[in-house]
Amino acid sequence: xxxxxxxxxxxxxxxxxxxxxxxxxxxxxxxxxxxxxxxxxxxxxxxxxxxxxxxxxxxxxxxxxxxxxxxxxxxxxxxxxxxxxxxxxxxxxxxxxxxxxxxxxxxxxxxxxxxxxxxxxxxxxxxxxxxxxxxxxxxxxxxxxxxxxxxxxxxxxxxxxxxxxxxxxxxxxxxxxxxxxxxxxxxxxxxxxxxxxxxxxxxxxxxxxxxxxxxxxxxxxxxxxxxxxxxxxxxxxxxxxxxxxxxxxxxxxxxxxxxxxxxxxxxxxxxxxxxxxxxxxxxxxxxxxxxxxxxxxxxxxxxxxxxxxxxxxxxxxxxxxxxxxxxxxxxxxxxxxxxxxxxxxxxxxxxxxxxxxxx
Length: 359
Hints:
The protein has helices spanning about 5-10, 15-30, 45-50, 125-140, 160-175, 195-200, 215-225, 230-240, 265-275, 300-310, and strands at about 60-65, 70-75, 80-90, 95, 100-105, 120, 150, 185-190, 205-210, 250-255, 280-285, 315-320, 335, 340. The chain is of the alpha/beta class and about 350 residues long.
């Protein structure tokens, strides 16, 4: 629940609205996982609130640790599904990559999550609770470290789960909860054009990252089938109209695939394509996994691609793989433990439930 919804619940139960706020602060500010932890609320009031709401938490089933300090957290939901989240330390900062769905329906060909198919959306509580459980883990293991940044780049397409993602953003940015600033949160999308237009009109608007990965429709059609519905021209048109606050830019993510989109000509086409956009490009060298028949370009090819983009005036940054030894890097999340899949993959995407209709 949002804070307003918690207050409305209290009123509907015949209680003062501030009782809803008290309970909400315990759950979303202090990470309470049981009613009896709420020591400033009497037992009769707690029992009344429990009639109208439940405190549902994810179960932290496994923590895998990378040699570079990255932690991959596997959670199980109340109905028994697995999702993954990743904690990435970087100096004094810690970024958490969180999931928005169980699986994914978008079917990007280089992504392991796509091979799971889509099972269901996560509700707002399940999205937010990934942060709370990770905070509790850090408090126990690294009490001087805190989560400073959030990226909705885990399992799932966030804009396919629009309402729950927006509700989770309102919860996580509230000053009465964990209070993570909007400028420290990034939502990534494969390019659902109508939802981009909707997001641009919201009062809570995080940083935006767009998974582009190609400079022409032929290649993007091949590696990202969503492009057949909303091609590059439609996507860039929506982004030109997207309201950006002062000094904010759209981030374009570009997964480099050897022999597919990594040539100097591709770099030149990309720079031309994005000319005039307030943007930057994050180059992501492909992170290998058994379900994709691609390879990572050589270090020399990666450097050459980046240098060509920069030479042509396109701000371009290289994202160093983190946690790839535990299948935690970008594009690798598929519920693996020690390299072994915990959930069978679906060989053909159409075996999954259809993606939500986006008008």
